[in-house]
Amino acid sequence: MSTNAGSRPDIQSSRLEDEDYSKNFSDIHPPLNKHEAFVEADRCYFCYDAPCTVACPTSIDIPMFIRQIAADNPKGSAKTIFEQNILGGMCARVCPTETLCEQACVREEAEGKPVKIGLLQRFATDHLLEDGDKVFTRAALTGKRVAVVGAGPAGLSCAHRLAMHGHDVVVYDAREKAGGLNEYGIAAYKSVNDFAQKEVEFLLSIGGITIENGNRLGETISLADLRQNFDAVFLGMGLAGINALRAEGEDLDGVVDAVSYIADLRQAKDLSKISVGRKVVVIGGGMTAIDAAVQTKLLGAEEVTILYRRGKEQMNASEYEQELAQTNGVTIRHWIKPNKLIGENGKVVAIECEYTESKNGSLSGTGETLTLNADMVFKAIGQNFVAAPLNGSAEAIELDSGRIKVDENRRTSLGDVWAGGDCIAGGEDLTVAAVEDGKVAAEAINDVLSA
Amino acid sequence: MADISCNFLGIKSPNPYWLASAPPTDKEYNVVRAFEAGWGGVVWKTLGEGDPVVNVNGPRYGAIHGPDRRLLGLNNIELITDRSLETNLEEITRVKKNWPDRALIVSLMVPCEEQSWIDILKRVEETGCDGVELNFGCPHGMSERGMGAAVGQVPEYVEMVTRWCKTHSDLPVIVKLTPNISDIRQSARAAHRGGADAVSLINTINSIVSVDLDAMAPNPTVDGKGTHGGYCGPAVKPIALSMVSEIARDPETHGLPISGIGGVTTWKDAAEFMALGSGSVQVCTAAMTYGFKIIEELNAGLSNWMDEQGYDKLDDFVGRAVPNVTDWQYLNLNYIAKAKIDQDACIKCGRCHIACEDTSHQAITSMVDGVRKFEVIDDECVGCNLCVSVCPVEGCITMEQMTEGSDPRTNKPIDHDYANWTTHPNNPSAVKAAE
Predict the structure, then answer these.
(1) Which residue of A has its CA nearest to B390?
(2) Interface contact A106-B347, CB threshold 8 A
(3) B391 is catalytic
(4) Does A38 sit within 8 Å of B349, measured CB to CB?
(5) Chain A interface, mutation test: which of B72, B349, B368, B389, most A Cβ atoms within 10 Å?
(6) Contact, A337 vs A242, CB < 8 A?
(7) Do A38 and B351 touch (CB under 8 A)?
(8) Are strands B371-372 and B367-368 parallel, antiparallel or unpaired?
(9) CATH superfamily of the domain spanning B6-324
């Protein structure tokens, strides 16, 4: 445990007893057992033109899959889900259901207690994944080949749909493992037992998809080559850049990019080896900020504070996620922005902040400052799209607000290139939205290839 | 406070709730627990003659469940008491002695031979019980041996056995009727002709509650086979209410005391049976589902409702709904009602819309001015009540009578006169109204 309070800054691993790690990082919403699933499924009214389905970015027929659970057909239920969302298992775990399907549930309006759609979806999809039954088969092979860049939710969704239509797909990914943010992002307690990899295996079991890991666009592969060698290309490489704080002291030791930290934590075989500060400050207001804050607290940090430059309502993290952080002992402070990071011997020891206010919609500092001690400061103020690798050797792809511009079919300005997920303009930073992008693009690609 | 004490055929009980002849009344232990809990009476589980019957040693019950595994219907293949006659008689005697203020009726089922009935009645009279109930209803097992429903399904047998019992005993005789017939009035009339003091109904309904699709056999499955059983519980209440009402309004049996049975679960169910002419009610499945404690709700609910309605005693409302049970042909065809949806209560599930759109009259919107909204289109609404039935929110949709203007569906002005099918011009055998 942390006892060396005197020697600052205090960043260390093994702050907890061994058993506390597995306890703290166990499944945050344990799965429903069969009895619980039946009881919950019975609550669904099987609404007409169901608001939950309308609210789902992938338009899963929610009343139907719940009815199938209630009718003791979990396999059929899972099929209903996977037909619309092949990553329905992960979405059941990470979707902000409280602002999507469950917010729209008429029982939320009726009694403030929506049907637990996310947990029911997990019940059904887990059932099928555990059974290992094959529910999808490929259409007659077309001989067409499609390259997909990025094995994240968008790319995998696209690849599966294309394979289903009989096309062969090669998925290139820069990392060692497929899954994208499902594997490298997302708090560990939301996806336990290596679920992301199990889901990838399930998805690949349809056949016709090859994953080529360790291939980064602009390094081992180029868009020009892909366009030449394949009948179509789908880009789903996400956001590679980390937004800078633009504050003095950003380079000090102890100032950490939250996205990489979360990835390291997800990949760690032994959580006690992950170092964490005693006093942690997280800058940002989105899901990444929450995931970094909660997980550092669970790793044994004594004080964790999220600083957000605007108010509670403007935070990208849902109210549920904010409450999750708070019940885990994280302090969320609004209307505060970082001015500079204060270091000693090259290591961060404190952060100087300034109160903010919003006047006529524009944000400015009030001039009043405060200083918080911190051994570790996380940057979680968003990511940006790095376009350079795209156009190294070919005609330029059109961008919009710094991301790839697409039409409603997710087709880019290049006729044989589609894109989806976080890298496109209007990307929502949601797994489920990325899955929908991949699906829509795959259908459009199929239309073009079979024309 | 309303007086809920009951006097049925001179048999008094502190409330109108008797436990029906069934597993809960098979033993002194259970019956004493019931009386301690507050039940008004019991009909002791059916006694037979000779060596005790033998029950199956596998499952005896099967069930239909609603949401949250709420038990809606129960089916059983249990037979009459499988304990010795001596033991039962001894316990009945003791219980009646210790609980003189409670009704204790003994259910009987012996072969269709006069001497068998003479013998059993003699034994039962010695217990001091308040009356007997003739089990002409059990649809399974015993009926294969010429008893139970096998008797109840033949009005001549019902009349004959009832007459034997009235001839050979002074005890009040209640004849329990089987619903497994086409016209309940025939059995009730037969019991009446035989001199029955009352009828009780319904006994259980022939049923296969479900099929085990792995074993490919009916449930409950006993070593790979199943048989039909007797169905009871909330699911059978509507059938029972209808049969009770038929007897209550039949000129031949009108006024014959009825003990109502069939799915009584709450005080409201009991009040409904009583409104249709039941002087007492019998309960079984609800007790077998929740235990005897429900008697507290049954008593308190009935008493509270009677206070609200200004009924001082049970007789003030028993049979009150009977005059309002009529034949379809006498319903007022000039009565016009339209559904109305309370938009504040509506949770926008859309079930009213899809039910009406797919299966009825296309009289409910799903979208108004581009917004999800469910409104009744009076021009199409026939007032069928389907939307009310499928709406998950109680009181959200109501049927409102039109009293002024014209029905927008037919463009006919509202006619305040009563007119039914017997006089309707579309009826080929209409009786022409007097000029």
Answers:
(1) A45
(2) yes
(3) no
(4) no
(5) B349
(6) no
(7) no
(8) antiparallel
(9) Aldolase class I (3.20.20.70)
Beta-carbon contacts of residue B295 (< 8 Å; ≥ 6 apart): B15, B17, B34, B37, B38, B39
Report residues of chain B scoring pLDDT below 70.
Answer: 432-435
Asked if pLDDT for residue A1 goes beyond 90, the answer is no
Residue pointed to by tokens 């509270």: B304
| pLDDT exceeds 50 at position A290 | yes
Does A110 touch chain B if contact means CB atoms closer than 8 Å? yes
Task: Verify whether the Cβ–Cβ distance B349 to A48 is below 8 Å.
Answer: yes
Q: Determine the Cα–Cα distance for residues B342 and B333; give it in Å rounded to an integer.
A: 26
The domain ranges of chain B are: 6-324, 328-423
Burial of residue A193, with CB atoms counted within 10 A of its CB: 0-12 exposed, 13-18 middle, 19 or more buried: exposed
Residue pLDDT, tens place only, A350-384:
999 999 999 988 999 999 999 999 999 999 999 99
> Residues near A286 by Cβ (< 8 Å), separated by ≥ 6?
A315, A316, A317, A380, A382, A429
Angle in degrees, CA B85, B87, B90, rounded to 5: 105
Calpha distance A322→A294 (Å, rounded): 10
- State whether CATH 3.30.70.20 applies to domain B328-423: yes
Are the C-beta atoms of B15 and B5 separated by less than 8 Å?
A: yes
- The span from the CA of A441 to the CA of B342, in Å, is 43
The CA–CA distances, whole Å, from B85 to A446, B81, B96, B115, B130 equal 80, 9, 16, 17, 18
Cα–Cα distance, B431 to B144 (Å, whole number): 49
CATH no. for A11-26+242-382 = 3.50.50.60
Q: List every span in chain A annotated with CATH 3.50.50.60.
A: 11-26+242-382, 145-240+385-449
Do B6-324 and B328-423 agree at the fold level? no
Give chain B positions within 8 Å (CB) of A48: 349-351, 353-354, 366
In eight-state DSSP terms, residue A139 is: P
Helix (H, G, I), strand (E, B) or coil at A340: strand
* B353 interaction partners in chain A (CB closer than 8 Å): 48
Q: How far apart are CA B122 and CA A182, in angstroms?
A: 81
pLDDT in tens, A238-252: 999 999 998 999 999
Nearest CA to A373 among A283, A285, A281, A284?
A281
Contact predicate A371/A361, CB 8 Å:
no
- For chain A, state the CA radius of gyration: 23
Q: What are phi and psi of B194, to 5 degrees?
A: -75, -5
CA distance B256 to B270: 18
Q: What is the token pair recorded at A244?
A: 């800078």
Cα distance between residue A174 and residue A158, in whole Å: 17
Pairwise CA distance, residues B327 & B420, whole Å: 11
Chain B contact set for A51 (CB, 8 A): 348, 372
Of the listed B6, B112, B129, B138, which one is catalytic? Answer: B138
The segment(s) of chain A belonging to CATH 1.10.1060.10 are 34-131
Cα angle B265-B270-B271, degrees, rounded to a multiple of 5 = 140
How far is C-alpha A154 from the geometric centre of its chain's CA atoms? 11
Look at the block and give the residue holding tokens 């708070």. A326
CATH for the stretch A145-240+385-449: 3.50.50.60
A416 alpha-carbon distance from chain centroid:
27
Q: How far is CA A274 from the centre of its chain?
A: 21
Fold classification of A34-131 (topology level): Fumarate Reductase Iron-sulfur Protein; Chain B, domain 2 (1.10.1060)
Is there a contact between A247 and A340 (Cβ–Cβ < 8 Å)? yes
Q: pLDDT tens across A7-39, in order?
A: 567 899 989 998 999 999 999 989 999 999 999
